[in-house]
Design brief:
Layout (H helix, E strand, L loop, with lengths): L1 H18 L6 H11 L5 E4 L3 H19 L5 H24 L13 H13 L10 H29 L13 H33 L3 H7 L1 E4 L7
Antiparallel strand pairs: 1-2
Helix pairs in contact: 3-4, 4-6, 5-6, 6-7
Length: 229
Amino acid sequence: MRTRLDAGRGRAVADRSETEPSPRPALDRRKSMNTNGRDGLRSLIIWDPLVRLAHWSLALATAVAWWTREHNYALHVDTGYAVLAIVVVRILWGFAGPRHARFRSFAVGPVTASRYLADLLRGRAARFVGHSPAGAWMIFMLLATLLACCLSGIALDAAENRAGPLAATRLFYYTEQIAAIHIWCTHALEVLVPLHLAGVLAASLAHRENLVTAMVTGRKRAPADAGKR
């Protein structure tokens, strides 16, 4: 009788082993997780070289232009033209560049940006592979303000010094108005830049990811298909 029962159990175990897959060892799952990165994400190139180069060169040129506004007028003008060139390149790249460089990939409405900021303050903001809604609005505001600052600077140089590409115009009639616009743009940048830095710090802490390093290396944790065009 016992031999018959043992044989029956053996057949049952054998049948079960043929129909049920064997569980994967916990060590294999850990290895798989380490291969893909935290939360199953991989480290991928998100920011292309031109985006990174434009970002850091624009930051440097803007800082130099701001610092020399009262100390070295010639250098101030030269770096202003450099800022204008970088802004134009970045705007063009926002339409022709790869996926995460294109404006349409991160353009959102003000309500979405406001909700993201509110969630960020509460410590439960969603993580974005590319620019966050608040980051997207900051990019648009910075580019628009820098463009206005550069154009008003060129106009002011023509009005005050009869220099630059607009030297032959009669902009000297509007010197005070142009100067007011240029000064206003400068003050706007003095507000936007610290807000931008604060936002980068807050998002880095909230998502436990160094966004400054990401803009240097171009790499962020993302799904495998996030880096595709």
